[in-house]
Structure formats: C-alpha cells, structure tokens
C-alpha cells in the first residue's frame, strides 16, 4: 500500500488489518513507562485507536485533540498510538494541559502487527490511521489516511461508532 506525504509517495510496510478481522495484538508502552498489551483495552467498551506519525506536529496534534473532544461524548475507550517516546508524550500532554491515554510504539511491534510503518526521510514513523475495535476485539472500522499531512475523516469515525 502507498500513501503520500505532501504529495510524495511513501510505501507502507506490511499488511493492514481489515474490517471483520480480530484486532492484532502488540505490546506498547504507557505514559508511566510500563509495557501493556493493546488487547488489555478490549472487552468492556469499543476502542478507538488513533494512530499519528508524530504527536508533536500540527496535524497530529489537531487529530489527537479533536478526537479527545469528540470521543468524550461517546461510550468508548480512546487511545493514541505513535512512535513518540514516553517522554515526548508526557511533555505533549503537560504542554497541552491534557491527560490522554497515549501509547508508544518505540519497539515497532504495533507498526509491524498493523502494517503501518513508513520511512519518512530516514525516520521510521506510523501511517496516519484510525481503527475502531468492538468489545469482542473485532475491527469494525478502518481508515488509513491517504495523505499523511491531512487529518482523518472524523465524521466517518463517529458514524462508525454510532452504528455499533
């Protein structure tokens, strides 16, 4: 699969999961520096996994804040996943006076499991995407943003949640 960054093509490494499949599991790192299985969030409520290349950039910040605002009105678990370090996520949360659940994929497990790795000029990042996983751990919605510099379609994600 290919996406673009400011019009330049980028190859997305791997195979992305599709609707109807069990959500792949991966070990990520919490803001407290503890390893956690992604699957540990599945079960009680639907889970929205918002994937950003770098939370410290404008579009990623907009995506993270917008989903935080919109999903606060929904009965879902909201997670942001990126290759940002724990320290970068903590600094970002502090600077924005937020306390969001952010998960670091610095070990690249999530990127491999979800087929989202992209090389952005020698910097290995994740393709911008959104996954909705139901209480049984089945993927109900996938959005991989074709242009990494663009925000995702928020309305489509919210509609998918409402249709669960």
Main attributes of the structure:
alpha+beta, Glutaredoxin, five-stranded mixed sheet, 4 helices, globular
How would you characterize this protein structure?
With 164 residues, this protein is an alpha+beta fold. It has a single domain (2-162), classed as Glutaredoxin. Helix content is 24%, strand content 29%. It contains four helices and eleven strands, in the order E-E-E-E-E-H-E-H-E-H-E-E-E-E-H. The chain has helices spanning 58-71, 86-95, 109-114, 154-162; strands spanning 2-5, 8-11, 27-29, 35-37, 47-51, 77-82, 102-104, 117-120, 123-126, 129-133, 139-144. A five-stranded mixed sheet has the order 7-6-5-10-11, covered by helices on one side. Strands 1-2 form a two-stranded antiparallel ribbon. Strands 3-4 form a two-stranded antiparallel sheet. A hairpin with a 5-residue loop joins strand 3 and strand 4. The longest helix is centred in the middle third of the chain and has 14 residues, at 58-71. It is globular. 32% of the residues are buried. The mean pLDDT is 96.
């Amino acid at each position: 699969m290919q996406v673009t960054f400011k019009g330049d093509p980028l190859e997305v490494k791997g195979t992305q999961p599709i609707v109807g499949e069990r959500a792949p599991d991966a070990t990520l790192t919490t803001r407290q520096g503890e390893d956690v299985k992604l699957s540990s969030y599945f079960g009680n409520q639907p889970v929205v996994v918002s994937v950003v290349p770098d939370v410290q950039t404008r579009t990623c910040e907009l995506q993270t804040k917008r989903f935080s605002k919109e999903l606060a009105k929904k009965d879902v678990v909201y997670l942001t996943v990126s290759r940002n370090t724990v320290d970068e996520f903590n600094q970002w949360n502090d600077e924005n006076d937020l306390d969001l659940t952010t998960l670091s994929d610095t070990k690249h497990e999530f990127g491999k499991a979800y087929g989202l790795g992209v090389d952005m000029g020698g910097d290995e990042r994740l393709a911008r995407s959104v996954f909705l996983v139901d209480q049984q751990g089945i993927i109900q919605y996938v959005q991989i943003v074709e242009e990494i510099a663009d925000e995702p379609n928020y309305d489509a994600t919210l509609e998918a949640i409402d249709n669960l």
